[in-house]
Structures are given as C-alpha cells and as structure tokens.
Amino acid sequence: MALGRHLSLRGLCVLLLGTVVGGQDLELRLKDGGRRCEGRVEVKHQGEWGTVNSYKWGLEEAAVVCRQLGCGAAVDALQRVHFGSAVGPIWFYAIYCRGTESAITECTSIAVKDYHPESLSHDQDAGVVCSGFMRLADGDRPCSGRVEVHSGEDWTPVSDGNFTFPTAQVICAELGCGKVVSVLGHVPFRESDGRVWAEEFRCKGEEPELWSCPRVPCPGGTCHHSGAVHVVCSEVRLIKNGSSQCEGQVEMNISGRWRALCASHWSLANANVVCRQLGCGVAISTPRGPHSVEGSDQISTVRFHCSGVESFLWSCPVTALGGPDCSHGNMASVICSGNQTQVLPQCNDSMSERAGSVASEESAPYCSDSRQLRLVDGDSPCACAGRVEILDQGSWGTICDDGWDLDDARVVCRQLGCGEALNATGSAHFGAGSGPIWLDDLNCTGNESHVWKCPSRGWGRHDCRHKQDAGVICSEFLALRMVSEDQQCAGWLEVFYNGTWGSVCRSPMEDITVSIICSQLGCGDIGSLNSSVALREGFRPRWVDGIRCQNTDTSLWQCPSDHWNYTSCSPKEEAYISCAGSRQLRLVDGGGPCAGRVEILDQGSWGTICDDGWDLDDARVVCRQLGCGGALSALQFAELGPGSGPIWLDELNCGGKESHVWRCPSQGWGRHDCGHAEDAGIVCSGFVRLAGGEGPCSGRVEVYSGEDWTPVSDGNFTFPTAQVICAELRCGKAVSVLGHVPFRESDGRVWAEEFRCEGEEPKLWSCPRVPCPGGTCHHSGAAQVVCSVYAEVRLMTNGSSQCEGQVEVNISGRWRALCASHWSLANANVVCRQLSCGVAISTPRGPRFVEGGDQISTVRFHCSGAESFLWTCPVTALGGLDCSHDNTASVICSGNQTQALPQCNDSLSEPAGSAASEESAPYCSDSRQLRLVDGGGPCAGRVEILDQGSWGTICDDGWDLDDARVVCRQLGCGEALNATRSAQFGAGSGPIWLDDLNCTGNESHVWKCPSRGWGRHDCRHKEDAGVICSEFLALRMVSEDQECTGWLEVFYNGTWGSVCRSPMEDITVSMICRQLGCGDSGSLNSSVGLREGSRPHWVDGIQCRKTDTSLWQCPSDPWNYNSCSPKEEAYISCAGRRPKSCPAAAPCTDREKLRLRGGDSECSGRVEVWHSGSWGTVCDDSWSLAEAEVVCQQLGCGQALEAVRAATFGPGNGSIWLDGVQCRGRESSLWDCAAEPWGQSDCKHEEDAGVRCSGARTTLPLNTAGTRTTSKPLPGIFSLPGVLCLILGSLLFLVLVILVTHLLRWRAERRGDLSALSSYEDALAEAVYEELDYLVTQKEGLLGIPGFLSDGEDNDSRSAPEAPDQRTDAPGEDYDDAEEVPVPGAPPASQGSKEEVLPEKEYGMRSSQTRSSLNVSREEVNPGEGEESPWLLQGDKGDPEYDDVELSVQGTSTVTFW
After folding, report:
1. Of 10, 215, 502, 1021, which cross-links 987 as Cys (Cβ 3.0–4.6 Å)?
2. Could you tell me the CA-to-CA distances from 1287 to 414, 1273, 1284, 1336, 1338 in Å, in that order?
C-alpha cells in the first residue's frame, strides 16, 4: 500500500503488519448509527469485524475515519459505547492520528490483535459522527440549498454544468427529503471561496447515496459552469380518481411514502400555497368529506400553518408531533382554479360574512386581500399563541381587546390552523404592540373564515391604546420542559398541549429523538433515556407516545408521533432523560458569569481543570459552551484563586471547535498529576453586551456570533428578554426597551434569531430561541435596553405598600429608605406618577412613617417633576449627609391616577416666611420646569425656566442668596453657596421670564417669589442670574507636570478637598480616569510621600458599580471634613496620562500659552506657543504687522511696531507649531487666527517669526483662585496717540469750516444776502462746537476708565441707578448697550418730546450726548473644550472688553473703528 505522507517508524510497522496478517488492506465501516456516516467504528481483520478501543480517541482520529469513508468532516468523536456494545474482537487498543492521514492504517497504533481477552471490554468502543459527503447549504430549510460536497478538508460547491435531474433525485433521497421539486443553476458561489468540485456526477437516480454515483473528471480539470447548482426537495400532489391534477385530495411524499393530510387543521391559506406550488392558479375552495378519499390508509397528521403567500408548502411552519386521530372522512382536499395566471377575486371589506355561515371557510375563495395574520411574543414554535397582529398596507397592527372573547379567538386559531381557542387574552398579555390598531369592538360568531370579516367598528377605527392589545392561546400551542428538583438538563420530560402540562412516553424514542430534545432544551447534542428511576408520583396527562424524529427535523414539534391522547402510556413508561448537559460547567471568582476559574460538576461534585497545556483553544471551547462569546485570555497558576474538590481534567488538548470541554482529548477523566495551585481559568468576551450607550448598562443589544458582535433586531424583542440581559450584566433591572435604534454604520448584519426569554433565566444564552422567518428578522432597527439599579420604588406605611408613606427604593436587591435632606416635591410627584397614585399632595417629614429597618440611603435625585420614572432623574450618590430615622423622605399622593392637578396661580406669591410651603403645597398643573445649565453639573449654572415651550432666564436685578436658596432646594441641590450675576455662566437666549425677584428663601418654587411679573423686565441676557449649590461637584487631579496622574480632589460645599483611597477597587479607579478623560483604567499609588499642606478630606468608602456612569453616582460614606488621615489621600495614575495642556497650573488662558524669547525686553522677541505639552515656534510665512498686532495685544504689550522674520531673534528649538498664520489684526488671541493645522509646517527654525511691541508688559495680579485675570486694552485708535490724532484732526476740520464760512460770507456779501448767511452760520457753528466739546469730553472720560490704555485690574463698579422714569426698553440682542441718537436737523425717529438716554455702561460712564452714537459690544471668552469652568477656578469674571466703536455725524456715513 502506497503512503501519501511521512509515517513514523512505529506507524509503518503497524500498517505493514495489518497488510501482511490480513492479506489485504483493512476495511472500515460505521455500525448502528442510523446512517452510513455515523456509528461505531469497526475494522475488518482476518475476515472478521472488530472494534476500536476509545483510549485517546479524539477528533483527529474521527477525521481520518470520515475522510477514508468519504463522509465529510468529523463532527464528533464518541466514547463509552454511544452506539451500543458490539460483540467479537477488539482489534485496536489505541490509535494515534494527526488528523491529516487519508486512511486509519496510516496512523500510529499498537499491534493489531484481539484485546478482548486481555480485560478490555466493549464498553469503551469508539464511535464517530461525520457530516456526510454531501449537503444542501444556505437554503431556507434542510431540504433545499446549494449542493456542496466535502473534499476531505472543506465543503466545496458543485457546478451547474452538466448537473442532472437524476443526481438531484439521489441527493433528495439520501437526505430523506422526498423527491426533487426543482434544480436551479446560476447560484452564486460563496464569496469566501471560488473553488468548484472538479468532477461531474453521473447518477442514474437509483443509487442509495451520492458517494455511490459514477464520477468523471471535468475536462481539463475545470468544470464549466455559470454558477453553483441549487436543489429543492419535497413533493405534494392532488389526487382524484387515481390521477394527479388541479383538484383532489392533498397528498405529500413523506420519507418515500405518499400520505394524505388530515383536514382538522387544514386552512384556505394552506390550500392556496398548494395550488401555487403545483402551478394550478389559486384555491377556489377546500371541500371536506369522503368524496375525494382514496383507498390508501396512509394519513398524516402533520399540520401546516401557512400565511397564504408562501411559494412551497414546506416553507410554512409545520407541526407533526401528536395531532388528532384522523378518519378517512376528514382528509384535506383542494379545488384550484387551474389557471396559474388567474387574478384573485377582490375581497370586500364592507361586508362581513353572514352569521352562522359554518361553511364559509370551505366555500369562500382565497381573495386578493394581501392581509396576513400572525401571533407574536407567545414563545410558540408554530406561532399558536401570542398577540394578534394583522399586516395591511405594509404595516403590522393589532386588535383592541374591547369585546374580545373566545368567539373572536376561535376565528384566529382556525384561520392560522392552530386548533381550538383555549384563551382570549386582553390588556396586552403578550406585551404591547406598535403600529396601527386595525380593529376594535370585534363581534365574531366564531364561524368566519377571516378575523377581519367579523363585525367591528370599522377598519382602522378605534379608541384604544396598545396596552389593550388582544391575544390568543390556541390548543396547538406547544412547549417543552424537564422537571427535576436539582438538575436543568436531566429530569422527567413534559410537553404543554391543550393548555396543560403532561408527560411524554418513551417508546420507541431512539437516539436521534433524544438528541433533538436535548438540543432544543439547550442541554447539549446527546443524551440518554434513564429507565432505572422510580415511578413518578402524582397524576398528569401522558400526552404523546411513539415519537420518531428524522434527521430533517429541526425541533421536536416536527417529529411524527402517535396521536394526542390523555393516557398514551402507563406511568412506568414516562420518559426520564439525562442529557450530556447534565454534566455542568461554570466560571467562579471572576467577577462575572463569563470570567473565572473553570469548574465542572460531575457525580455531584464540582471540580477543576489543571492548567497543563491550557491555552486559548481550550478557552474557546469553554466560552462557547457557556454562551460567553469569544475567549480573551487563558489563565494559569490559579490566577483567580485555587479551587477545591476533584481535578477532573489534565493535559487538555482542544482543537477549539468541540461542543463540550470534556470532549477534548485529555489524560482521562479524573486523571491528573496536579494540585489546585495549577487550576485553569478564562476570561471570555461575554455573549451579550449593551453598546453605544452612556455606559455598560444601556445601549444597543449585541450578541457575540463567535467571530464578531452582531446587533439584535427590535422585531419581537420582549421585556422579559431585557430583564435577563440586565441581570446577566449585573446592571440591576430593565427599565426601558426601545426600538428604531440605527445599526452600526460599519455593518448591516442582524442576529438571525429571536429570543424568547421568560425573565427568570440566568443568562441570555439559556433563553429559548427561534430562527427568524426565512432567516431574516423583520425590524425597524436595533433593540436598545436601559438598565437601572433604581428601577423599583414603593411607599410604605405600617408594613404595607400603598399611595402614601415612606419612600423606599430597591437598590441592588435591598429596599432602602431615602433621606429627606434633599427630597423635593418635584421628586415626590415623579414617585406618585410612577406608582399610578395620582399627584403629590405633600412631602411630610418626621418619624411618623418610619419603618423599623436601618437601611437608609443618601442617594439624591434631582427631578424636574415632569419625568415618568424616578430612575430617569439625575442622581447623585457620592457623599451625602448622615441621615437619621426622623429625617426620611415621605410622600402623600392623591391616590387617583386620573386626578387633575390644581391650577397654579401666578398672580399670587406665597406668604413670606412660609417655612412649610414645600411640604404642604400640592404640585400644581404648572408645566414649568427648572434647570441649571453651563455650570458643569445639575447643581450649578445659569438658572433657566421652561414655560410655553421655551427655556428662558432670570434677570440679576435684586438677585441674592435668598433667591438662590429657593432654586437649590427646588432642584434638590442642597444649600445655596453663591448667587452669581452678570451672566457668570454665559449669556442665555430666549425670553427673560423674571426680574426684580425678592424671595424670602422659603418658597417651594422660584416663580412663586414676588417679582415684577411673569415675562416683565428691563434686562438683557448679559444680566442672567446663576447659582452655585452645595451639591455642586467637580473633580480634578493635582500634579506639577501631569494631567492624568496626581492627588485626586473633589469640589464640594464650595471647597476643594482630597478623596480617601479606601477601599477604591479597580472599577472605581477606572470610573475616575474615564470621567477625567484619562483613559479607561488606572491604579492607586500608595508609595508616594505624604502631601504637604492641609485641606478637607471630603469622602471615603467609594464603591462604584457597573451601572454607574460617573463618580457622582457611586455610593460612598457620608461627606465628612475629616473622612480619613492624610496618609490615606488617594494618588491615582491613569493609563491615559499625558503632559499638562498648560505650562503653568491648569487651566490657563491663551495669554499664558504665548511668550516672547530672545529679545531685548519682555515685549520683543521670538514668538513661542505652548501646545501638546511643549513650547514651539511660529513660521514667518505670511507673517505681517496684523499678526504681530494680535500677539502684542494678547501679551498686554501695546501696539505692534514691527513684524520680525527670518529668526532675527535667533532660531528656536523643538516643534514649529504654526505656519501660514493669517490674522486681521483685531482678534483677541493668536488662536483665533487662521493657520495650517497644528504641527504641519514646511519651515525650518531659520524662519521663526518674532515681534517688537510698543509697550512694556505689565504684571497681572492673582485672583482668589490663583490664576490671572485679564483685560485687553481697547484696540484701534483708542490708544493715547490715537485720541490725540482724533482731537487734532477735529481742530483741523474746524479751521477748514471757518475758512469755508468766510468764503461763503464773502460771496454772500457780494449778493447782499447777509440775513440768510447769518442764520446758517449760527446753526453750523453751534453744531461744530458741540461736536468738538463732545470729543474732548469723551477723551477725558476714556482716560479716566480703570484699565484703559493699561493692563491693570478691571473695575467692576456700577454707577448709581437711575430713577424709574429714566429707564428705557432694551434694544434687540443684535445691539449691546447702544442707541441711535438723533442729530439736530435730521428727521426724528419718534415724535415724542422726551430726550432718549443711553443706558448705563459696565465701566461706570453714561452719555447723554444727542449728536453721536457710541456702540460698545463686549466679547465673551469661552473656556476651551475639556477645561474646567473658568468661574470655578478663576473666581468672578473681570470686566468685559470693548470694541466696535461707532461714531455717527450728520451728513456722514457710519464709520467703525477697532
């Protein structure tokens, strides 16, 4: 025998021995497996068949057997007499293959002899399961698809060139799929592989399998084709008087035998599919009775559940299990139109069928109504239970439950071929649907052919919501379970039928049936019947016997059996099944269900796996078996702690594709030389995750396919499924399930199964799953789930939950009372709404509702009052006050969920000093909401109120701490620390709702304080009010040279203080780093020395959870000035550490990121800028006086005298950060100018730019926060030389006017018109002198402004307020503190007699001039992205800057100076 590859000497000797002794090559076969390519391995030696011992028997050996027999790939290598015990010799003690050999004789083995007399028994006979030589792939069922054959290495498609119909007949017969329906060509090959099988099959049609057919090589080794070949098997016919035509009894070829179908579940929709499949047009009727009955007694109780639009009968959902006892007078028949092009008659929606028309289903033709009916979310394999939905006009809609009863349900069940109606459910029993509600007030008699033909209110007319969606449970609804006290995958088998659970009988129940049962229950692929268990106690139906599954069946429901019968067998014949899954696998001590030490339960004991040879291939098997996605890491040396008990496996050598880890080759079960210090562990990716949300506990549902993460569609996604996901991810409970979420742009794939969780499963992997119809899940997007640890709330009084009492929240499985210190009426109203208890009447405080428990939580909610659930409100858990039992939050609700809220009264404020107003005032129907914005958190910022759909602000006139107290308390933000003014948090937009507020501090709502009136004001948004409350929190790291490493500090109660490091686990450190933008991980550093100085040690005991999205949501000990000792302050190093973004203490201004070097003064030199942690230069390309002007002004160095180029001040070093800078000259910062991207330059340091400025740089004083305040001088002509030039120019203009006057006088004298001249001259002189006087006055005023022409500290003083009658209405937002003043002689803008007055300026100057217009606008500087709010670190804002000065004079156009 020729060998195709190198063999070891030992293997060669074995092969030669086999050849010599046997006189021929060893023959091989598989026995007792039910088909040619599976069974017990037997070898023929010396003319006698014998077996192979399974010692070291694995997939490598099985692969060689399958290849030698032409049976495709090895699916499983079986031990322990899986296919029964043999008799006769045991020829091989052990065989060792690499998996690449072409025959078993090429493998290494001990001498071939009979080992049976040497104490080996047939209990260890080896077996294999092969894939088979041929398959139909990528079809919509096992009996259709692209023809592929196994080459010994991979599946290869067969070309459509010269492919014959007899060959297809052999394929269908081999697969047990009946006869050929069609053979199609031009099918695209798989994208991943362009290979084609290099032989043509020449079957005659009678061969038992494709392997037996003659084959010829394709000419030239290449098969000509236009694509792969696609085969569709199965057959149906209509028989009348012995001939097949377009009417008659319906018969199907089932496993080679023609069987009539029973009419008990036969519908007109099924009939229409048969007519279409046979090319016989459409179904006219489905007559019943004996008139079409043939003599055969072969009647099948297979039930089809077609919608009527399928192309083939086998495309419909099918149920074969059980079924009614069918007589010859109750067989299905069809009369087709006989014309395949006939147009279906039009359905009539306006007419319902006659009441009592029993024969309507038989006589009414299947009309052109495109409507379809289905039941969803009922966890039914044949869709015979669930919410009733109808497809019309492209949309699935529901039926309202008004008047919904069993008569209506009967029509639905019969229309779907689902038997009798058992229950008509209402109130969205199967979950609320979506889309239209098509029918309401349905009143069926029970005999109609279609549910939409029943009398109703009218199509699409209703007064319902989806919480009233109707559902049904039909008698054909089936479910399967195992009943056991302590096992999931071993127990008594029960089936749910006709509304009742009953047992299943075990005769004959072959291995394939047991395998399908185990697989359907998620308990592995194999199992066994246990006949040694004692009789089961109790009475129950014994529903079905004689189950005979076939390899084409994909679930137990498709398996033929005896008829349903209440007593199908005796009690001693009830089936008790033990699946391979009864040996259980788990991961422990890894922090989750998909990471940990690997442990196996066997014989009642949990044991471990030794790490000898442990690698990612072994880990992949464990992860896949547990439904935990892909393997990320294979851990050794008891990295997750040592286990206890037995060590079940050692020297594991998985290929990575085994279905169970104990099926991998190993040293043997329970055999090892290890200790628990070598226990193996793994980290898996997990089977499910929530992606694209705010954290790991909210987002798009994605599952791991084994290769990548795939989103789950929102079609038929249920709330119980969401509950399982949240529990598995340790994210609390599901609070929201959303659809219509866009899929990832990079991938349009969708998970091809629907999950049918009940809500109690431990993991999503354990939930029942059903393939989406046709392999495609209908959806409007991905499913999104939101989980929360605050999902449940209740009100408790005297131990009972009702609509008043102490507020308690279920946090991590424990009910905790809430502290009243930050509890607001807005929070209370949300609780009442969530509990359907109406509205909040009051929030009493004190011990009257206090329960005996000591579980009090200091979690603070910040609701606006309009939320539907408490968990949707912003929440703070960090810190909190120490709360006593007499200070727990309580609520009294109205108890009537439909009660109308009392109307709020805007005209009356609350009585001053009403301290109890918050507790006693009901939450009224005022739709207003309150918020704080642009402050870095919910408890600091600009005050804004929502009213009439618009967010507006509050003016700061009279704004003080009493007003701020009301705002902070209303938002549940603690005490007021600061009442900010002058738009410290930036100017808002929209209306200004309140002005001249005068709160006492005790009001329940800020809009109940005395004020000028709602919407009445004389302010602009530069006067917007803000607050800083004690609950405002901020976070930072303090370090000299790093942004992401340093001492951790939190800002609380107006002061920065340190954070204590006990216990602070990894998840807490990761949360901190992520919140600071410093990566996703970090570590505590306990080796740094003690920190100098004293400060508060604000908080300790921080314990973040997976559900938390920021540090503020993490529970901790209460706030305490001395929470820990100085040596326990937390110093954290984050993985994303980077240099500081500022050369000095962060944050910094643009001025501190700019410097001059190499010059002869502070205001001349080479321009250098700070970026990405280092100083660099600016290239002189396009460098001009405009750019130099911006640099000089930014540095406070006066005007630019010269723009220096060509490294005049010497070349710099490091990076050249900027190139191609182009300024206009009036920008406030070089960063505002256009330039090339940072660091992109084609220059050298010989081209470094510099500047010479006119002035010397002044030093700015430090404010309370330790940073410099800045005030830029007014640009343009308002430097001292500019003002002098303006005055001299005006004098010159005056001289010119005098000369012109004299000239005009001389001319007038000559004309003798002296009187007219005198009048004109007086008017002109007056105008000129007043203009000059105005300019001089302005010069004096500007020179007296603090900070003008200098970089000194800004002055924030105001002049005295005017009398009320002098105030004017504010102009539009396009103008800031400016009014157009009329010039004498110009047309008046208004006919009023009052003189218009300019509003007061920030710098304390007012103008009442009437001949010019001074328009000053301020420029607002926003903090850079990622920096902390300037108000927090720099104290109050300095004065605004002024530019855009406009001067209007009669007879000239407006001139703007900068």
Report:
1. 1021
2. 101, 20, 5, 7, 11
- Is the omega angle on the peptide bond into residue 1147 within 30 degrees of 0, that is, cis? yes
Alpha carbon 1456 to chain centroid distance? 54
Which residues, other chains included, contact 1319 with Cβ-Cβ below 8 Å and sequence gap of 6+? none
Q: What is the mean pLDDT of the chain?
A: 74
pLDDT of residue 1168: 92
Residue 581 has pLDDT above 70, yes or no: no
One-letter amino acid of 1105: R
Handedness of CA 1235, 1239, 1240, 1242 (dihedral sign): positive
Helix (H) or strand (E) holding 1321: helix 1314-1343
DSSP labels, 118-186: GT--GGGB-EEEE--SEEEESSSSTTEEEEEEE-SSSEEEPBSTT--HHHHHHHHHHTT--SEEEEEEE
Of the candidates 809, 815, 812, the one whose C-alpha atom is nearest the C-alpha of residue 831 is 809
For 636-712, strand residue ranges (E) read 647-649, 681-684, 688-695, 698-704, 709-711
Question: How many C-beta atoms surround the C-beta of residue 777 within 10 A?
Answer: 19
Give the tokens for residue 820.
């009243």
DSSP codes, 311-357: SSGGGS-EE-SS-----TTSB-EEEE-S-TTPPPPPP-SS-PPPTT-
Give 456's pLDDT tier (boundaries 50, 70, 90).
very high
Contact 785, 722 (CB under 8 A): yes
What SS3 class is residue 47? coil
| pLDDT per position as a tens digit, 943-997 | 999 888 888 999 999 999 999 999 988 887 888 999 999 888 888 989 999 999 9
Give the SS3 label for residue 768: coil
Specify whether the CB–CB gap between 378 and 387 falls below 8 A.
Answer: yes
Measure the CA–CA gap between 721 and 690, rounded to whole angstroms.
Answer: 13
Q: Smallest Cα–Cα separation from 250: which of 292, 305, 309, 297?
A: 292
Contact 122, 90 (CB under 8 A): yes
Say which DSSP state 822 is in.
G
| pLDDT tens readout for residues 129-157 | 888 888 888 776 667 788 888 876 778 88
Q: Which residues sit opposite 275 in a β-bridge?
A: none
Closest CA to 1264 of 1435, 1388, 1053: 1435
Number of Cβ atoms within 10 Å of the Cβ of 996: 16
1194-1217: burial string, b at 16+ Cβ within 10 Å, e else = bbbbbbbbebbeebbbeebeebbb
Give me the residue label for tokens 């394939």: 512
User: Quick one: CA torsion of 930, 934, 940, 944, rounded to 10 degrees?
Assistant: -20
For 381, the token pair is 């394999």
Query: Length of the chain in residues, anyone?
Result: 1458
Structure tokens at 683: 């980290």
Nearest Cα to Cα of residue 76 among 95, 55, 57:
57
Give me the numbers of helices (H) and strands (E) for the chain, helices first please.
17, 77
Cα distances from 891 to residues 251, 795, 846, 966, in angstroms, run: 70, 7, 11, 20
DSSP codes, 368-410: S---EEEEESS--TTS-EEEEEEEETTEEEEEB-TT--HHHHH
Alpha-helical (H) ranges within 947-999 are: 961-970
Per-residue pLDDT tens digits for 18-50 = 333 333 467 898 888 767 788 899 998 888 899
Report the alpha-carbon distance of residue 729 to residue 469 in Å, rounded.
31
Give the CA distances from residue 473 to residues 316, 423, 924, in Å, rounded to whole numbers and listed in that order. Answer: 20, 5, 45
Beta bridge partners of 986: none
How many Cα atoms are found within 13 Å in the side-chain-facing hemisphere of 1116? 29
Task: Specify the pTM.
Answer: 0.39
Tell me how far apart the alpha carbons of residues 104 and 15 are, in angstroms, rounded to a whole number.
9
If you write DSSP's letter for every residue of 1195-1264 in order, what string do you get?
TT--SEEEEE-TTTT----S-EEE-S-B--S--SSGGGSB-SPTT-----GGGB-EEEESSPPPPPPB-T
